[in-house]
Amino acid sequence: MEISSAFSVAGKRAVLATMHGKERVIRPLLEGGLGLEVVLPNGFDTDRFGTFSREIERTGSQLDAARAKIEAAFEHDRHAKVAIASEGSFGPHRQIFFAPVGREIVVMRDRESGLELIGHYADLSTNFAHATVETVEAATDFAQRIGFPRHGLIVIGLSGGNPAPDRFLRKEIETPGELAAAVADALALCGAAHVETDMRAHRNPTRMRAIKRATIDLVRRYRSSCPRCARPGFCVTERLAGLPCAWCGAPTNALSADVFACEGCGHRIERPFEAATADPGQCNSCNP
User: Fold this and answer.
1) pLDDT digit string (tens) for 116-156?
2) Same domain for 271 and 150
3) Pairing relation of β-strands 82-92 and 100-110?
4) Is there a single domain that holds both residue 271 and residue 205?
5) Neighbours of 260 (CB within 10 A)
6) Are residues 20 and 118 in the same domain?
7) For the segment 262-271, what is each residue's pLDDT rounded down to a tens digit?
8) 11 in the same domain as 74
9) In this structure, what CATH number is given to the domain that contains residue 118?
């Protein structure tokens, strides 16, 4: 079913809440894929919603921050009918504790219809990393490992063994010489320095690729309309486990179906996977 005209965004002015170059990957996809007219807000400060360098803490969740950016973008550009914002989150994987994971969302909201869609992307390819160093040489070794200067670095002071941007913070580090000078200054002040990858999009090509993938997911979600009401966003909202064991027929932890649901009318469809039975190795009865 085609998307209802009530939810069409083609030709609408869309303000993109960014100050870190995200338009390089978001704008072409939303203009080419959805027909939006994407504009940037002049003088828009997204750092007020939280910074990776810790001098401004993010309040609320990742989605809360993206929605706050959207509200501010609408206030900033009264002529915009649509607003888009992206937000990233980085930390240890929930199951693989030693591995960092990056999670990106790109949120789009239509002011007139109230439609909100969220594109997602998460994987282990993030270069999110940090090190506490006591010499410039140690900082240089870390920089080489993460691909500096193509990928940016920030240097933060320490207090009680923890990063303390109120004591020392240097962000705009472009060259090995600037890195050495920043680390030396932090060492002189704090005795050690916290060096970490700059996760701002314009200084992190790895993160920029992830934002692009989240935007692609947003376009895909928009193009997937509900077969009952034609609202965009009819996508997988749940995955059901319980595929029967090939030996004993008992339900296993293996996935059995995807659930598609519409946030508008509540229409729901279960689409079973092709496999009719699960490997007995995934059965708690046959392989306790």
Assistant:
1) 999 999 988 899 999 999 999 999 999 999 999 999 999 99
2) no
3) antiparallel
4) no
5) 18
6) yes
7) 999 999 999 9
8) yes
9) 3.90.950.10
| Same domain, residue pair 143 and 191 | yes
Contact (Cβ atoms closer than 8 angstroms) between residue 218 and residue 34: no
Report the distance separating Cα 139 and Cα 132, nearest Å.
8
Q: What DSSP string describes the chain?
A: -PPPGGG--TT-EEEEE-SSSTHHHHHHHHHHHH--EEE--TT---GGG--TTSSSPPPS-HHHHHHHHHHHHHHH-TT-SEEEEEEEEEEE-SS-TTSEEEEEEEEEEETTT--EEEEEEEES-----EEEESSHHHHHHHHHHHTTTTS-EEEE-EETTEE-TTT-EE----SHHHHHHHHHHHHHHHSSEEEEE--SGGG-HHHHHHHHHHHHHHHHHHH-B-TTT--B--EEEEEEE-PBBTTT--B-SSEEEEEEE-TTT--EEEEE-S-SSB-GGG-TTT--
Task: Say yes or no: 189 and 69 in one domain.
Answer: no
Q: Can you read off the two tokens belonging to residue 136?
A: 């410039």
What residues make up the domain containing 208? 5-126+201-225
Tokens of 219: 């376009």
Question: How many structural domains comprise the chain?
Answer: 3
